[in-house]
Amino acid sequence: MELASGTKIHQKICNITKLSSSIGLFIGPFFSPLIYDSENVSQLIKSENHMQEKATQYKFIRSLVDRSILIDSGLSYRESKRILLDAVSHANLKEYLISFNSNTRNLVDDLSSKVGGTEFNLEIDLSFCIISILIDTIMGLDASIMTRDEIILFAKELDNSLNYISSRIHRAWLYPDFLYKFSNLFKLSNQSRMYLRNFCGKLIAAREKKFQSSNQKGVKTARTVFIDKYFVSKRDDGSEFSIDNITDDVLSLIGAGFDTTVISLGFVIIMLAINQDVQKKVFQEITEKLKGNNRYLDTKDLNELHYLDQVIYETWRLYPPLPVLGRLATKDIDLANGGYLEKGTNLWIFVMKLHRDPTFYPDPDRFNPENFLPERVKERPSEVYMPFGFGTRKCFGNIFAKLVIKTILCHLLRNYQFHTTKTEEDFQLALEVTLKNKSGIPVSIVSRENIEIS
Predict the structure, then answer these.
(1) Which tens digits make up the pLDDT trace of 197-229?
(2) For a 10 Å CB count at each end of the chain, is N or C smaller?
(3) Would the annotation count 14 as a binding residue?
């Protein structure tokens, strides 16, 4: 089966996987097995040491960044991971909550003009909020350093860049660089790359100036700022990080953090708008556990919201941010069904299908947060749930994303009730680098100001 683009890919793969327990497909010129049965997935996880390399197609991310923890291995990967993991450490995440709260309050205020109005696409407002959070937490800068229009354009260009990468993956004739450079896709991709890198360059310059000024005055920063690590650390070979190195890592972190968080939040909110009974139950939990309508939330507050966790996990089950995971077999790998994968095979795990296995998830297409009651989770093997990947190459930003999502949802749901005229059948799902809903986040909102919170 040869693939074309976005929504068609999702439709074709979902249709054909209903007919067979395993399939092979052409992704560009490469014939690749698509694996989604739990036994073979479990076997692959056991062979993780032979799948440390990402699938060949991920190299197209280099049209945006020359180096990236998302696709690199070896020295470059270790250097980036060392600094990036510190950015999402538990201690730093606690500090970030101030930013999560303040920027979400701004979002609540921005949405007040839409109360009682018609249905609108929430995606732009969420994008502005999340980019503002990332500028604050990653760069240590107030988002007001950029205008709202600049931030929204940045978010749009991030989305465009990922679309361009996906488009190239789906077009075999654009795999050779010498052909790709003559295409309109190359021109569009370069335009986005230049805008995004210039945007990040301005942020880096502003933070470095602030960092140097604080050092000269002997002022200690109130909290740890991720980007400052690059100004005082050296690479493993003893050299300093270049501006291109720093830009690559900043763009990788902001890009990944933005995309997965907006996607996840969008799906959770639309699912709550569709399932009013679940939204009511989440609201009840928030009002019972959190005292005070407008106070800032801390990690203790968020850790008390167990049903909200179930809702988020169930949304990730049905609509995982990473719907397919591509790896390159660096050695022969035996499969559970008696087959094997040869060294050099590009293999893909179809997470969306794995997450809808009726053996582990009864009535698997139904939105049911009770799938993540503690006793039910214990009954399932861990490898049948991997919304952010698995093993050492698992997306390291999942804890960051979860805290952002919970903070934003708490503030939004304490102030507004969400409604929609859409159903899941209206979703226009597209399998790209991440899972996209091309229909956006169409909702209307009602104020909860008359609801007392005790």
Answers:
(1) 999 999 999 998 988 887 766 656 656 678 888
(2) C
(3) no
